[in-house]
């Protein structure tokens, strides 16, 4: 049995091309280091990009404010920021009163985070799922 495993290991190593060979250079297979570098520079995590989020759900909470939930698509948002709501009823500038993610209060959130953003001065008639929030007012 040991000889069989040793033979299989030798065959696999012999059949795998070297990392700098021309066959691998143009292939879609990446080394782990290259994959890490690509993940660090992915466009979805660019915090310098403009903030955008599609509203997934609208909830009214105690105190009369609304929480708009969704996944941040690009950029970042912080408590106290002013964002624009694009809805069927028009465009409205809103102040972010708070940010929550999985029952944790956050100071800021960035692309890829699932969040609830709290807003005052907004009614459920003014916003629905599918409306967009963005930083360009």
Description:
By secondary structure, this protein is an alpha+beta fold. The protein is 20% helix and 38% strand. The chain is built from 3 helices and 10 strands. The strands form 2 sheets. A 6-stranded antiparallel barrel has the order 1-3-9-6-5-10. A hairpin with a 5-residue loop joins β2 and β3. The longest helix has 14 residues. The N terminus is likely disordered.
- Give the CA-CA distance, first to last residue: 70 Å
**Gyration radius, to the nearest Å?**
24 Å
Residue share in helices? 10-25%
Alpha plus pi helix count: 3
What percentage of amino acids are in beta strands?
35-45%
Quote the average pLDDT: 78
What is the N-to-C succession of helices and strands? HHHEEEEEEEEEE
Major sheet summary line: 6 strands, antiparallel, barrel
| Number of E-state strands | 10
Q: Would you tell me the structural class of the helices and strands?
A: alpha+beta
State the shape: globular
Summarize the entry for a quick read.
The protein contains three helices and ten strands. With 137 residues, it is α+β, with helices and mostly antiparallel strands. It has a six-stranded antiparallel β-barrel with strand order 1-3-9-6-5-10.
What layout of secondary structure does this protein have?
Elements: H1 2-15, H2 22-25, H3 32-40, E1 52-54, E2 57-60, E3 66-74, E4 76-78, E5 82-87, E6 90-101, E7 104-106, E8 108-110, E9 114-119, E10 132-134
Antiparallel strand pairs: 1-3, 1-10, 2-3, 3-9, 4-8, 5-6, 5-10, 6-7, 6-9
């Amino acid at each position: 049995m040991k000889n069989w495993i040793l033979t299989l290991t030798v065959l696999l190593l012999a059949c795998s091309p070297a990392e700098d060979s021309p066959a691998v250079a143009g292939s879609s297979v990446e080394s782990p280091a290259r994959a890490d570098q690509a993940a660090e520079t992915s466009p979805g995590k660019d915090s310098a990009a403009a903030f955008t989020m599609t509203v997934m759900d609208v909830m009214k909470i105690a105190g009369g404010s609304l929480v708009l939930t969704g996944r941040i698509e690009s950029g970042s948002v912080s408590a106290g920021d002013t964002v624009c709501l694009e809805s069927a009823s028009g465009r409205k500038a809103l102040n972010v009163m708070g940010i929550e993610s999985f029952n944790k209060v956050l100071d800021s959130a960035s692309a890829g985070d699932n969040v609830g953003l709290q807003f005052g001065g907004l009614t459920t008639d003014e916003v629905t799922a599918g409306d967009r929030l963005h930083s360009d007012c």
